[in-house]
Design a protein that fits this description.
By secondary structure, the protein is mainly alpha-helical. The protein contains 24 helices and no strands.
């Protein structure tokens, strides 16, 4: 005699759990392992520092404890610190965030957030918007995906917030091929300390020999298509228990609300100055005029200027711009905490006990490109870049570490033309872009916006790393022949 399940007796029907695809099972495995073993990003940087110290003791002859400690101090707070570059990076991020929070841009994001009907559409929307924004400016791209993901998730009943934020962060893989690529921009600026090519050869490499080359933009298009397919196929069934009302409340609070005042209270002279929109217009016109006078010169500093003046213009009044900029700066706390540690790692990588010893960065880079040919050098640089990016997660700072070895290897192969050296620089940039999917440093501002743990996001980006490794790796093998 068969028995009827209780669920049916009460009028309910049992629904079998949907079968997971191989990609979903793999992603779930990555998420579980990341949640179990991934430490806080600050501790991750500390562990990397200790690992570099051990590698120095093993591979750098005559290394001493005092010398190691001194080189670390010089990289963190001393004469070789990265404070200037760190401030540039922070300003790019903050200006991008401020631009994304401008009323016109914000209305556009809210409109986009109203379109997705489910979490897959939402994740693809986050990725698409972030990909386009990253090509324009990496600071803007980082925050657009997170801000859009927050708004979309707050609207949907069933969605995984970590998956959605991870999808937006995947767009960051494209920034080194975009117009704010620190390596490509440094190649165009003879005054930049990061222009390794100019230092070695006294040649400049314009953007039309790097990010505007077919090997760059075709790879970007292929990566966008492949990552979009991955995002679609990896969509999880589990949802997140996140307070949607808190997310909606955070988005509803605008900069304009902070300017409200009780009825009958007269505006002071200072209030009128703070609301004087013409000041923002003058700032924009001055910056735009200089950009024209400079010959439309694109470098790290000019990108900071352009996004700052555009954000000021779109925010209308000085006080709105000031408040938005201040709010954006709050996301940089984790970066300011960790950047000195990575400066220390850069100092350790450059430590050489004497004139006859090679620093660890030279040992690693040279061992990777040993035996390279003209056809294989870009791919080997790409592999080395992924490894070095774990220790130096900054496109420009990373180029300062690996660039001299990569350029010298090209020169030894008889390749010193700007076109080939541009390929060398972009091969290093590609490795850094892909490695960002497993290096949590640049996830920090995204996590600050989303108020999520790194463990909720990085499991998904590991799969993106594998896809990016294949696509960019193949492009590096084809690059020397085009």
């Amino acid at each position: 005699m068969s028995s009827t399940p209780k669920t049916e007796a009460h009028g309910a029907t049992s629904v079998a759990a949907p079968r997971k695809s191989p990609i979903q099972r793999f992603t779930d495995l990555c998420v579980r392992y990341v949640e179990r073993f991934m430490p806080d990003p600050f501790l991750f940087a500390v562990i990397l520092t200790l690992l570099v110290v051990v590698m120095i003791l093993l591979w750098v002859p005559n290394a001493s404890g005092a010398g190691i400690l001194t080189s670390w101090y010089q990289g963190v707070w001393g004469t070789n610190n990265i404070f200037t570059f760190a401030l540039q990076m922070v300003l790019i991020l903050v200006s991008g965030y401020t631009l994304a929070e401008a009323p016109a841009v914000k209305r556009g994001l809210i409109w986009l957030a109203s379109k997705p009907r489910n979490q897959i559409e939402g994740a693809l929307m986050c990725f698409g918007a972030a990909a386009v924004a990253n090509i324009l400016n990496w600071g803007l791209g980082l925050v657009v995906g997170a801000l859009l993901g927050r708004r979309i998730f707050a609207r949907l009943d069933k969605a995984n917030f970590g998956y959605m934020i991870a999808a937006g962060y995947m767009g960051y893989m494209l920034w080194t091929n975009g117009f704010s690529s620190s390596i490509a921009l440094a190649n165009t600026d003879p005054t930049s300390k990061l222009n390794v090519i100019f230092t070695a050869t006294h040649q400049l490499v314009p953007l039309d020999l790097t990010i505007l080359q077919p090997y760059s933009w075709v790879t970007v298009l292929v990566a966008i298509a492949a990552l979009a397919l991955l995002i679609w196929k990896m969509a999880p069934h589990a949802t997140d228990d996140v307070d949607r009302e808190a997310l909606l409340g955070a988005d509803a609070a605008g900069t304009g609300a902070a300017e409200a005042r009780p009825e009958g209270v007269r505006r002071s002279f200072a209030d009128r100055l703070e609301g004087l929109w013409i000041l923002n217009v003058l700032l924009f016109l001055a910056g735009a005029a200089y950009f024209v006078i400079s010959g439309f010169n694109l470098n790290i500093s000019s990108m900071v200027m352009l996004f700052t003046i555009l954000a000021a213009l779109l925010h209308g009044t000085p006080i709105r711009f000031i408040r938005s900029f201040t709010e954006a700066a709050k996301t940089c706390g984790p970066l300011l905490l960790q950047y000195p540690l990575y400066g220390g790692i850069v100092g350790l990588l450059a430590y050489a006990p004497d004139a006859h010893s090679k620093p660890l960065q030279a040992v690693i880079s040279a061992s990777i490109v040993a035996g390279a040919t003209t056809a294989t050098l870009p791919f080997l640089n790409f592999l080395g870049s992924i490894i070095i990016s774990l220790f130096v997660p900054s496109g420009g700072g990373h180029w300062g570490v690996q660039g001299p070895i990569a350029v010298e290897a090209a020169r030894q192969l008889g390749q010193s033309s700007p076109a080939y050296l541009g390929k060398v620089s972009m091969s290093v940039a590609a490795g850094e872009a892909v490695a960002n999917m497993i290096q949590p440093f640049w996830l920090l501002p995204v996590l600050a916006i989303a108020k999520l743990s790194v463990r909720k996001v990085m499991g998904y980006t590991v799969a993106a790393f594998l896809v990016g490794f294949v696509i960019f790796g193949v492009a590096m093998l084809i690059m020397p022949h085009v």
